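EI: anyone free to look at a 577-residue chain?
SC: sure, send it
EI:
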Amino acid sequence: MRETTDVPEKSAVPNSMTDAANRCYHLLFEQSPVASLLASREGLILEFNQRAAELLALDVNHQPQPDLFSFFSPEDRSLLHSQLQMTFSEHLQRSASLRLLLAAGMESSVRLISAPVASQPDICQVTLLDLGEQPRNLKLLSQLAYYDQLTGLPNRLLFSDRLRWAIRDARRQKERLAVMLIDLDDFKHVNDTLGHEAGDRLLQIITGRMTSSLRESDTLSRRGGDEFTALIQHVNDRQDAASAANRLLEAIGKPSELQGREIISTASIGICLYPDDGDTADSLIQNADIAMYQSKAGGRNRLSFFNESMRIEATQHSVMEIRLRQALQAEELEVHYQPLIDVSSLRIIGLEALMRWRSGPDGLMTAGQFLPLAETLGLLGLFSDWAMLQACRQMKDWLDRGVLSSSSPVRLAVNLYRGQLNQDNLAARIQEILAESGLPPAALAIEATEDMLQQNDPKQLVNLQHIRKLGIALHLDDFSQGFGSLQKMNIIPFEYLKISQNHTAVFLENRRGEALLDALLNLAHTLGLKVVAEGVENRDEYVWLKEHACDGIQGYYFSRPLPAVEMEMLLQLPRPL
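SC: here you go
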């Protein structure tokens, strides 16, 4: 997801509901025609809708929170307790027939359905269906069982059933059909920055647009979260399937206004064909999923068709995923350090901390080889915090032992990774790491890549300003996308601008590139910025950069990233490099 220029905000977002009920607010209080409530692990009723209030004779102002178990026959409470615990532990929907206690000692049979609430591990949603209203409730049960409650789309159960019937028809008619798995890119960014209610609204908007782009004979389904599947029947070939997928991408990519911001969404789509890529519902969905991850790896906002080579890669990916989950506990992660060299004196003035994974059969892997997977697995925050703490402890150790003097200009540079700039507590977390390691703020620099700042997100700007107020230096890393980013320099007090490794080589390929690099150096110096060229590989590049007043350089011409032991030896050399 990326944000374009802000538009005037029309109205404030309702903020009266509790955080626990926020995501389910519309379902429970506006959309649900049946008795619905939210319950804690202990069985306390946290929120309930009007139908639940009528069925259970609940008072809106009831204090304290009512005990759900007290409304059921004592003989059924053990069953209810077991069902709730299974819902919490297995994160799956469960149901049971129970006896509800009514006034004057009467009982009524109800069907109780408990379901997990996304992002709320200690809360479950409870739906009560009065079995005395059997005809009406059969329709409601069908709706709950086969349709997604947020979007109204068929759920994965109904989609699989329709796909199996479609395969039978296609086999009989000797036709092809296409199965697509659609995953919205960076949808977590919307939830993190605008809140889950805005994320739910965006899902509804995108669902409407995707549905309109398909034929009546096609089926669009929500599998969960930001993931959808599509069944496209009566396709002749890949071109027909690609046309349908491109219509979906176009529909998803239309701007949406949320909370006064214009949001542009993208998606990654994986496609497989029957009978070419599978002849069962399960195999087609699985292969479409494999192809979708290929789209993600290929840059997102694109479509990919399944082929057999992807299956081998997916198997290797699964093995790598298992090992990566164990990497931190197995002490396989390392921090290496690459020196930043002052051009004029050839002395070390900085150390960039770079994460590495010593991954058994794959050897030493760079951050770019495993951090995208760590992000997918939800491990990126844990890994990045660990690396920052390790690097700060190492830097403090070098200062304490005199490997670096307290008056040394050498500063530790640590990279922020994708998503961290949107965290509410980023500056506080960095401050905690400094306190734990004992490293003074002046000895640390934080590096943010240029592409992180392309979304004009106010939260990102505030986070960087808070970090700078702590006394920590800021570097703009991987500069490559043009002079437009330089306008942010009057908002964010960056000290260094670092030209990406690829662009250092491109700039120095010919005279036109050299002229552009010279102009960039002059402009940066005019703005009070120092410039570091990354990826310096040979003496000719170094000489040119020195002659044109580049301030710092990094690259294999001087040193590769080194483990701490080797870097300590380099730091103790009695002369410039």
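EI: The CA atoms of residues 267 and 470 lie 38 Å apart.
SC: 👍
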